Amino acid sequence: MFSGIIKNLGTVVETFTEGSNKTFWIKSDLTPGLHIDQSLCHNGVCLTVEEIKEDRYRVTAIQETLVKSNIGQLEQGQVVNLEQSITMQTLLDGHIVQGHVDTTGTCLSKVEDNGSHIFTFKYSHLFNDLIVEKGSIAVNGVSLTAFSCKDGIFSVGIIPFTLDHTNFKWIGPGDMVNLEFDIIGKYVKKAMPGFLAQ
Questions:
Q1: Residue 119 and residue 52 share a domain
Q2: pTM for the whole structure
Q3: Sign of torsion, CA 113 119 125 128?
Q4: Domain range enclosing 34
Q5: 156 belongs to a structural domain
Q6: Fewer CB within 10 A of the end CB, N or C, for the chain?
Q7: pLDDT digits over 35-60, tens only?
Q8: At 85, is the secondary structure helix, strand, or coil?
Q9: Edge-to-edge strands of the sheet including 147-150?
Q10: Into how many domains does the chain fold?
Q11: Residue 79's domain is classified under what CATH number?
């Protein structure tokens, strides 16, 4: 489980494909503290650390992950948002993030707003019921507040600190991002038909 508070970045140094899977070697300051079998969030996708060599580590994404996220588009030199799983002592500064990406979105615009930036994203309208005005959403693993929610469109505000410490600084119109909707909203949506039938 994660909280959507990004404290580290990683750089893809090598990728290769085996069957329908794609494997990545990633360089990060986090590496010395990692261990094999550890869960680590990459752009909002939970992947397992498989091997560690000096300042880099290896993870693999299966076909399901590659289809539902932007992980498959990662190439050498690109930067990913990283988050280690939370502990019982961790402050939940963001919101509950599982690292299970629901779908991808496309950046429509990036507008400077008095020092901060407003990003607007488009996504499949099939997920409209899972996003609410002023509700939480994870974008590339970053816990953010959605606003200006319309049919298949929402915006988020990025403060300078977040822009400087995540890969949002490289996101612009046309770029794909990973979206994970609030887990509480998912359970409520699933339960509602049963409640309405009573």
A1: no
A2: 0.92
A3: negative
A4: 8-84
A5: yes
A6: C
A7: 999 999 999 999 999 999 999 999 99
A8: coil
A9: 142-145, 136-139, 176-181, 103-113, 116-122, 153-158, 147-150
A10: 2
A11: 2.40.30.20
